[in-house]
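2024-03-11 09:14:02 INFO receiving multi-entity request
2024-03-11 09:14:02 INFO entity count = two
2024-03-11 09:14:03 INFO echoing inputs for audit
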Amino acid sequence: MKIKVLGPGCARCHQTEELVREAVAEAGVDAEIEKVTDVMKIASYGVLGTPAVIIDEKVKSVGKIPKKEEILKWIGK
Amino acid sequence: MKERYKLLILLLVFLGAYFIPWTDPVIRRSGLEAVLMLQEYAQQHVLTCLIPAFFIAGAIAVFVSQASVLKYFGSTASKILSYSVASVSGTVLAVCSCTVLPLFAGIYTRGAGIGPATAFLYSGPAINVLAIVLTARILGWQLGLARAIGAIAFAIVTGLLMALIFRRDDANRAAGAIYVPDEEDKSRTLTQDALYLLTMVLILVFAAFAKPAPGSTGLWALLFAAKWFITGFLLVVLGIMLKSWFSREELTGWVEATWGFMKQIFPLLLGGVLVAGFLLGRPGYPALIPEHYVQSLVGGNSLWANLFAAVVGAFMYFATLTEVPILQGLIGSGMGQGPALSLLLAGPALSLPNMIVIVGVMGIKKTAVFCSIIIVLSTLAGWSYGWLVS
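2024-03-11 09:21:47 INFO inference complete, emitting structure
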């Protein structure tokens, strides 16, 4: 599974990335987490609003810090 | 923060401590000015102006639905609406400057196109609620108002010009799905949200109510005499609203967002005030940079002075809100009102690091046109404003 956290270097984006890492560790799934900070790459996903979470190229959340339970649901545990 | 930045900061502090001739009388005076200017901010602006403004910014970030604004940036949205929303959306969306660039890139490549995108790029950082409040408070309400009106008007004009000049390119943009943040379920009506924000704005207005000229009577003096009673009453009203309309999580979210802005912006402002005080001093007091330099470059209201202020503003990087103490220092050293507005209009929206990112998004030619439009408009607006107030 490939998880991407989109967002330039702002506090909310770091928080989201950390939550994703925690959720992945908790669920014990095998996932590759990537932080995308390049503005054009972020735009190429068509998201208006950061931080955004992309799992296997599907947009899961936009413009907010997701809750950990939500992330756990997305990664299937 | 990356480790090498920490090292760099430490190194700069060390070099400053080592090499700056602190025993020199001019340097001593400047150092004292820096601390005195900081004290002026701490005593006069932090409690009654900045803290309420931060709470308002936090409330806007948490309670105003971003989705309701962002849907007007889709590729199918009506053009007139896109432009109007883009020009004022900075108040809602861009309290954090780091959200501006990705949003701009998104609107440009997938959404409503180059016009609304550049309108948003310009107005976003220029009209956020903190910047306007602090400008009006410290540099006078006229300049604050001129800044707000100028920013909105410029956003629309710049957006329309960009769309007109590059209308061919705009037609062959990549199409694709766009995702806007979800609408959240809320327990409050729009009226309740509006009343809540209005109460906070009124608290800000009354807490920061300026002392009327000595000897003046009438409504102004009456309101000033009663300002703390009115503020206290409004605080009680706010307390009742918070208790009956909001859930616990919402309140926590609000306080967290407010704290987020505070810890992001206060250190920058602290640095900005110290640097402005050190270089330029409080109004009426000289510091490191002699006043005749400032007066000869940006004094009066010549076209040249306005152009110079606009160009410097466009290239220089101002961290959020620091443009205000810097301008305060400059105006105190003899900068004209016109050039001050030119700098305010060209400054926060553009900077060299910012331009580099914009070049990455829309190429060097469009970026150059965008920056030129803003510099020309800022110069003309500053010039007219300077002529109007003198």
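2024-03-11 09:21:48 INFO post-check: DSSP finds 19 helices and no strands in chain B.
2024-03-11 09:21:48 INFO post-check: The mean pLDDT of chain B is 84.
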